[in-house]
Amino acid sequence: MPTIVSVDDSTVPGEGSSRLLLLVSSDNKHIVVEEDIMSRSRFISKQVEGFEATSQRHAILLPFSSFVLNKVIEYCSHYRGYYLLEDDPDAAPPGRSPVREWDQEFLDVDRNMLLRIIKAAHYLEIKSLVGSCARAIADMIRGKTTEEMREILGVENDFTPEEEHSPSSKCTG
Amino acid sequence: MIALEEEIRASRKALEDEILASRRVLTDEVNACRRALTAIRTRSNSLSPAAMLPSDILALIFDSLALAELPGLASHQYRETPNAQHTILGWITVTHVCSRWRQVALYIPTLWREVTPELGFAWFNRILTRSQQTPISV
Q1: Residue ranges per domain, chain A?
Q2: Which CATH class is domain A4-154?
Q3: Which of 97-126 (B) contact A at CB < 8 A?
Q4: B93 contact A CB<8A
């Protein structure tokens, strides 16, 4: 669960139609963003509903860096007002449709950044972004050997010698 | 003369036993080193963002890969000199990357929804078991 802190009204401008949210990253950067932009995040939407119940304004503390948070905000800003099928709660699991052209360019980042974005999107419950990241990662390792997959994603072979050689082991499936 | 021959035989036997015992000790040491290396690699994976992705994210990645790379079919178009095992297994290759990926993939029945005849009878049974109650297509 996120930590929620009370926010002074002067910290968060924006009375009126376009409400503003204060998001605080793990590196303690304060980022003000329009609520409308972040409505794609089910997590944020649920937090906002909670604020409305208490009639208080809050900051939302998030467990990832401002660099990652800004990338997520960039994604949400790009698709502001768009209906994306993957974000529908009844839609099929994300990651099955091809990555949109804009998403491909947006996700043209190094491996670690891609992994950070997918974890942030998962935390924020942005299904469409999780799906695009999952597809991008799948594309990175598609057609690769076991060794190549390990190298691409920085994973070690940690099977025991027994697992390597038993009849029901990875060697046979 | 006979006594000498017996003595030599006994010495040889003792020497052979000693070598055998030393070999056992060395084999045990090698196995201990291998186990230690596995433990170190597991610890290293616990710091690897990819190895430690939440299970449901890994499930989505594997699901996406399973759609794109059916066992027995998909690899040819991506590799100039495909490795035989890899070519046959397609997406199932992810189960050989590390123990956590394998654990996640083996316990998601919906991933095992496709059976490719080229994989043979043993694989048919294996996939049937792993798919549990999920309808499969052949």
Answers
A1: 4-154
A2: alpha beta
A3: 97-99, 101-102, 122-123, 126
A4: yes
